[in-house]
Design brief:
The protein is mainly alpha-helical. The protein folds into two domains: 4-148, no CATH class; 153-191. The protein contains ten helices and three strands. The protein has helices at residues 4-11, 20-30, 36-54, 73-80, 93-109, 112-116, 123-128, 141-148, 153-168, 183-191; strands at residues 63-66, 69-72, 137-139. It is globular, with a radius of gyration of 17 Å.
């Protein structure tokens, strides 16, 4: 397996498959209460997970580390400037799958758990010195990819068991996209009997 830092350079060169405005419109359609800081936190997680799972950005726009958290600055400024929100449009399947997973996790246990479960400081904390120096610094796609590539050992076991099950069913070429909350517990019970989350 290639080192994460070597792989991240190649991945960020791939063109994005959507835009932050389209992803934000889909999040708002499916979770109307997601706005402001929560919306941008969800975009941050969607971008990081899409970079890892699909090996390309979900959207081209850059994230910045603002005092309130990670923000897609261009989207924030466009909406603050009174530009109407983008109408909902069908997202590419890869982005739709990642958004679905993030929103299901958000509803089940809060989006911070998606970041807090990963060991080490997240990209926002890295570039701001744990929040002590948040001054709209860019959060690179490389930094997001490297952080979201860190895998909890139990997730690795589940991913490998899922890959084996897909291979056995003849669907081995499909990318791994975890199921929403609830399904994870079922997988653990099926493939790792007696283990708990």
């Amino acid at each position: 397996m290639e080192k994460v830092s070597e792989l991240s350079g190649a991945i960020i060169e791939h063109p994005a498959v959507s835009s932050s405005a389209a992803v934000a419109a889909d999040i708002r359609r499916r979770m109307p209460e997601a706005d402001g800081v929560l919306l941008h936190r969800l975009l941050y997680i969607v971008q990081g997970m899409h970079l890892v799972w699909e090996r390309r950005p979900a959207f081209d726009e850059d994230l910045e580390a603002w005092p309130q958290g990670p923000v897609v600055a261009s989207l924030w400024h466009a909406e603050a400037g009174g530009r109407p929100g983008r109408p909902w449009e069908l997202l590419p399947e890869s982005v739709h799958n990642v958004v679905t997973n993030v929103l299901c996790h958000q509803r089940h246990s809060g989006c911070t758990m998606l970041v807090e479960d990963i060991p080490g400081p997240d990209p926002w904390n890295r570039v701001t010195g744990s929040g002590s120096n948040a001054a709209r610094q860019p959060i690179s796609k490389r930094c997001l990819f490297e952080f979201f590539s860190i895998e909890h050992p139990q997730n690795a076991e589940i991913r490998e068991a899922t890959a084996a099950a897909l291979a056995a069913s003849g669907q081995a070429g499909r990318p791994f996209v975890p199921d929403p909350p609830g399904a994870l517990e079922a997988l653990v019970e099926k493939y790792l009997p007696g283990e708990t989350l």
